[in-house]
Write a structure and sequence with these properties.
With 179 residues, this protein is α+β, with helices and mostly antiparallel strands. It has helices at residues 24-39, 137-150, 161-166, 168-177, and strands at residues 44-46, 56-59, 82-92, 96-101, 111-116, 118-124, 130-136. The strands form two sheets. A five-stranded antiparallel β-sheet has the order 1-2-3-6-7, sandwiched between helices. Strands 4-5 form a two-stranded antiparallel sheet. The structure holds nickel (II) ion.
Length: 179
């Protein structure tokens, strides 16, 4: 059985709460989330997706999938995986692009989402140290996707009416899976 909450699970709609201090308990959750993410072959996972309400997400964006138009890595100095605790986006470019996104809570569904091309995010790492990251490309997109999760927002909220209608059957299936 999957330990990832699927669309329809109320845990996905909760707003995440700030982590007071980065304890061993928080680190254990982080490790569990990374394990679940890798098992599911995902590149990102937010705490809400495993039924936790704290402001934590993890990312492992493969460098080969994150290149700019010239073929160079978008984020050459970033080491994966990344652990974001109490993240806050403090800057976002006006320049946007639209690309398809998936989500482990919406199996087999890909949706076009418009996001800022670059973001600056402030957060605490696995050791509770303050960090600041300037992210571009797929990493910037993934950060914005996971920030949505912390705010109880989902891919569903980025779908057009037509897309929602197109996948009505799938949503019904998700609903059933939560019963
Ligand atoms: Ni997601």
């Amino acid at each position: 059985m999957s330990s990832i909450c699927i669309y329809g699970n109320p845990a996905l709609r909760k707003t995440a709460e700030c982590v007071g201090s980065v304890t061993n308990e928080v680190r254990a959750l982080v490790d569990r989330m990374l394990k679940i993410m890798y098992t599911a072959d995902g590149i990102g996972l937010a705490a809400g997706q495993v039924g936790e309400t704290c402001a934590v997400f993890v990312l492992d964006v493969p460098a080969e999938a994150d290149k700019n138009d010239d073929g160079f890595p978008s984020n050459p100095s970033v080491t994966m995986p990344l652990v974001f605790i109490n993240p806050e986006v403090i800057g976002a470019s006006d320049e946007v692009d639209t690309k398809e996104e998936g989500c482990l809570s919406f199996p087999k569904l890909y949706v076009s989402v418009t996001r800022s091309k670059e973001v600056v995010v402030r957060f605490q790492d696995r050791n509770g140290n303050a960090q600041m990251l300037n992210a571009k490309g797929l990493l910037a997109r993934a950060i914005q996707h996971e920030m949505d999760h912390l705010n109880g927002l989902l891919l569903f909220d980025h779908m057009s009416k037509a897309t929602k209608m197109k996948h009505a059957l799938l949503f019904r299936k998700f609903k059933k899976a939560n019963k």
